């Protein structure tokens, strides 16, 4: 398959994903995908917003992501977004994208902070993105707040496992550097389903918030808790930056400067940061789709055959 063919792989899976979402089921097909997991304030939203270069995800305290968000990034000259549930509408204001995610979440889950496994499909077209599809999942939590169900921790865990147990799913495990890696919620749940660390990609956030004199060098060099696909460090905007509407491009320049000037990370600066993470994920997802495509094709064909057989049987069905 030539390079052009490789570039078409992610859009091809996007089409399948949309088709299955439209009919409300996955036909038991495990589509190759990347699921984003992490604790509630690990910085998942900031990582995804940095990819897009826009603020578009709901924010606040407690569980903000309450339904899986299938985020399809499509490299395109014009910049706009569209949802599968209102395809006729093009969103050019990303504040409206956020409001639509909130409204669509409440429509299914109600406003009592409950969760639902029914995904929201959002496609963002932009010259600043690489073709990439990620599934943003609710952040792991320990305690129920307000009128949340008391078993919310278990509910979220079950939902995450629904996605990451599948062999075809790559796991983007997001962990803040200012917490003990051994206690990372994301790495713990990833290890349960991927004990060899073959399909887990580690992302370490909040490197700029570590205590003075400490760094995450051993983690980022893949020495502490090794993963086959390694770790990539990123520096997101702070809450103050977000509240002050700091431009994401300015923040990315600051991130680059941080890695190039930090004595602990200078030697690996080229393998760190948001742009490198986005390129790596694009590459890994493309390769992953290429590897799983033959099996996927066989499965689709056999399902098609059995459906056709069923249709034939119904054709000769006579009412008594």
Walkthrough of the structure:
By secondary structure, the protein is an alpha/beta fold. Helices cover 41% and strands 16% of the residues. It contains 10 helices and 9 strands. It has helices at residues 3-7, 9-22, 44-52, 94-109, 152-164, 185-193, 217-220, 239-243, 248-261, 274-315; strands at residues 33-38, 69-75, 80-83, 86-91, 120-126, 132-136, 169-176, 200-205, 231-233. A 9-stranded mixed beta sheet has the order 4-3-5-2-6-1-7-8-9, sandwiched between helices. The termini are far apart. The mean pLDDT is 85.
Fold topology:
Layout: H1 3-7, H2 9-22, E1 33-38, H3 44-52, E2 69-75, E3 80-83, E4 86-91, H4 94-109, E5 120-126, E6 132-136, H5 152-164, E7 169-176, H6 185-193, E8 200-205, H7 217-220, E9 231-233, H8 239-243, H9 248-261, H10 274-315
Protein name: dynamin GTPase
GO biological process, one term: synaptic vesicle budding from presynaptic endocytic zone membrane
Family: Belongs to the TRAFAC class dynamin-like GTPase superfamily. Dynamin/Fzo/YdjA family.
């Amino acid at each position: 398959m030539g390079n052009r063919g490789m570039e078409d792989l992610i859009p091809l899976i996007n089409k399948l994903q949309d088709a299955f979402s439209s009919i409300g089921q996955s036909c038991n097909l495990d589509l190759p995908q990347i699921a984003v997991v992490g604790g509630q304030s690990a910085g998942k939203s900031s990582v995804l917003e940095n990819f897009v270069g826009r603020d578009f995800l709901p924010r606040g305290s407690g569980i903000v992501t309450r339904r899986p968000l299938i985020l399809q990034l499509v490299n395109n000259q014009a910049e706009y977004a569209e949802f599968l549930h209102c395809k006729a509408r093009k969103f050019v204001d990303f504040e409206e994208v956020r409001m639509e995610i909130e409204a669509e979440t409440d429509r299914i889950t109600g406003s009592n902070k409950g969760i639902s496994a029914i995904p929201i499909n959002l496609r963002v077209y932009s010259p600043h993105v690489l073709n990439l599809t990620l599934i943003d999942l609710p952040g792991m939590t320990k305690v129920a707040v307000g009128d949340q169900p008391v078993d919310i921790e278990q509910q979220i865990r079950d939902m995450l496992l629904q996605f990451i147990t599948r062999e075809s799913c790559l796991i983007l495990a997001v962990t803040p550097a200012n917490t003990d890696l051994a206690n990372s919620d994301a790495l713990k749940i990833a290890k349960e389903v991927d004990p060899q660390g073959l399909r887990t990609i580690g992302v370490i956030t909040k490197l700029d918030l570590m205590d003075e004199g400490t760094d995450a060098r051993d983690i980022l060099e893949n020495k502490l808790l090794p993963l086959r696909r390694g770790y990539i460090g990123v520096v997101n905007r702070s809450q103050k930056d977000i509240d002050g509407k700091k431009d994401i491009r300015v923040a990315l320049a600051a991130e680059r400067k941080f890695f190039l000037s930090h004595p602990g990370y200078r030697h690996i600066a080229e393998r760190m940061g948001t742009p490198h993470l986005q390129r790596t994920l694009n590459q890994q997802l493309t390769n992953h789709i290429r590897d799983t495509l033959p099996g996927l094709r066989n499965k689709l064909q056999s399902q098609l055959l059995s459906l056709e057989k069923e249709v034939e049987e119904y054709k000769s069905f006579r009412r008594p």
